[in-house]
Request: fold
Amino acid sequence: MTTLLLHDDALSSPEVRHEIGEPLGDPLVFIEHEGTRVVVGPPQDEALLSRREDVVDEFWSVLTLGGEDLLRDRSLPIEKIWPELAFRALARLGAQHVVVPPSFAVGTADYLRERGITVEIDASVWRQRRRQKTPAELEGIERAQRACEAAFGTAARMLGDAEKTANGSLRFEGEILTAEWIRQAMETELIMAGADCDSILVQSGDACLSGHDVGVGPIAPDESCIIDCYPRDRRTGAYTDMTRTFVPGRISDELAAIHGHCRVALDIALESIKPGRSDAHERVSAYFEAQGYPTDLSRDPGETVTQGFTHALGHGVGLEIHEPPAMGKRAEELVAGDVVAIEPGLYFPGVGGVRLEDTVVVTDEGAEHFTDPFPYDLVP
Reply:
């Protein structure tokens, strides 16, 4: 039977956070051996983790493995104390072969190998474990989604109530409406709802073509405004991801057309989200191609698509904002339990861009939203 091993803290390692379900900042060792999940950690974490019978079967304090003696042993470099504790725990369990993720510390791996433990790096094992979200992670994603929608409600109100002035600027409550102001208002709403976001994208006009640039300066009237928010639930560390596009003012025929096609593409993607399938990106790309829009299906090798559908359809979401499964040209087959963000978009210089993004969970029946989806209308 495979013995799984982790050595890190739960704030730095999504693998550790997934296994123990708590945001602990001190290093620990997690071992799953013959169906038993063991955590080796400092004594101050014992009361908390001993209550987590859903994720931990046994908690071993570092004191029971001679941690104090190791601290007093000046012949042992301090950076080797935790590797030695991991070795002692494995020896107690009788494990001689362990499987670790690619992020596993090189120093710990080398130490264990020197002590006779076979250390195997296998990314697929850990990818599959994390693709199956825990109930707490799913609840966290839903909370993050509700916080996100509240923040989008604030942004939509600001854009909808803004007035176009004679000099062509947008003013909200008497002040020029900027990307920075919308971002700050959304961040405040997220914090009040128990979430946060490292960087909310607020892009106006041709800035919609600038990829992951956060967007700065005044919001232009009568042009598209893409807002992309990926908040993290502070209780569980789980993310969601959502994008909507608004036009504060007159909607051009071009923007109305590409918005309509993105809306159809989103439905095509949602219909394609089923266990065993991996064709969502290809189907959406084929639809856009049929409408005359460039995608990576028609590009030459080595060429970059700079307008039209310029990116992958989506990505997995969980304890990281981008994680398996991949949903681009090299798409992975979906499995029940995956949580994925799907984000069809079209972008053209001089016209602007439109992107619509929802995060859904893959069930045996197909894609399931965490909430009733936020409106997709261009009119804020």
About this structure: Residues 13 and 103 are 8 Å apart (CA to CA). Residues 135-161 form the longest helix (27 residues). The longest strand covers residues 3-8. The radius of gyration is 24 Å.
